[in-house]
Amino acid sequence: MNGKVIAVMNEKGGVGKSATATTLAYLLARRGKRTALIDFDGQGHSSIIYGVNNINKLEVTINTLLRKIMEDKPLPELDSYILKHESGVEVIPSNSQLFTLERNLCNVDFRERILSQYVDTIRDRYQYVIIDCMPQMGTPMINVMMCADSIIVPTQAELLSTQGLAELLRHYQIIRKNSNHNLRIEGILITMDSPNTIVSAQVRQLIERGFAGAVPIFKTHIPRSIKVAEAVLYHKTICEFMPNNPAAQAYEKFVDELLGNEETEVCAVG
Ligand SMILES: Nc1ncnc2c1ncn2[C@@H]1O[C@H](COP(=O)(O)OP(=O)(O)O)[C@@H](O)[C@H]1O
Ligand SMILES: [Mg+2]
Q: Across residues 10-37, what is the average pLDDT?
């Protein structure tokens, strides 16, 4: 087994990356896929949603693991630190120490491949490794693009939210051309949508026009629902907290679409 690495990425904060990464991991696990979730943001939102009460008390985090690789020290056994959630998702947590990563990477050889080196040590245990990214570009994000197979880009259904996409796309194209030739953009996922509003239609048009042909857009949109934020208070994804909620059902459809696209690709190749 050589797990597929899917990064949930957008350099803007508050666009639904963590909601999407945590819910995607949850639904994949529920569909019987062996799934790991790497929390790659110092805010630790994925870790919190998966039950960590105090992220600053964590002993092993993605940051401490990457430090070991940078210092050429052995990694602890995966089973000694991975958080096994009852849903089946296995979480590599994070806390604010990850904010030092960019600076720590400065003086390291092959600094763009540190995360790849780590992911290579766990990838054969899983069918999917989902990465919940931090909200800025820079060397840590280059690390993600070097080890991911594909990227999902959540974008809030507001006009200003589409602005960072061009920068992300530029990095993606450079990395795809020069290093990780197999990297793909799975699609832009419109989140916090208010269906049938003018702004929602305009955002879709803007994205379609701006990225026509270059980037697919998921047909499924995730509607705005206050229950998504409420679920976090209970350390849950919306699909666990309230499976009949429209946002939960949209996430189910989104995962159908994602897995359906994968099958189409396999058929096209095979
Ligand atoms: N579909 C949604 N409807 C309403 N609120 C949402 C939705 N998706 C996410 N949120 C909330 O919006 C905030 C930002 O979302 P989050 O997933 O943390 O974004 P990011 O990881 O991109 O910073 C959080 O409070 C989250 O609970
Ligand atoms: Mg987040």
A: 97
Distance between Cα 147 and ligand 2 center (Å) = 19
pTM, rounded to two decimals: 0.96
- In the chain, the number of structural domains is 1
Q: Is 24 in the pocket of ligand 1 (CB under 6 A)?
A: no
- For residue 9, the enclosing domain spans 4-269
Hey, which residues does 133 pair with through a beta bridge? 40
Q: Domain of 128: which CATH number?
A: 3.40.50.300
Q: What is the 140 CA–ligand 1 centroid distance (Å)? A: 22
Beta sheet of 128-133, edge-to-edge order: 83-84, 90-92, 35-40, 128-133, 4-8, 150-156, 184-191
44, 83 contact by CB (below 8 A): no
pLDDT digit string (tens) for 65-96?
Answer: 999 999 999 999 999 999 999 999 999 999 99
> What amino acid is encoded at 66 in this protein?
L
Q: What is the pLDDT of residues 108-128, one digit of tens each?
A: 989 999 999 999 999 999 999
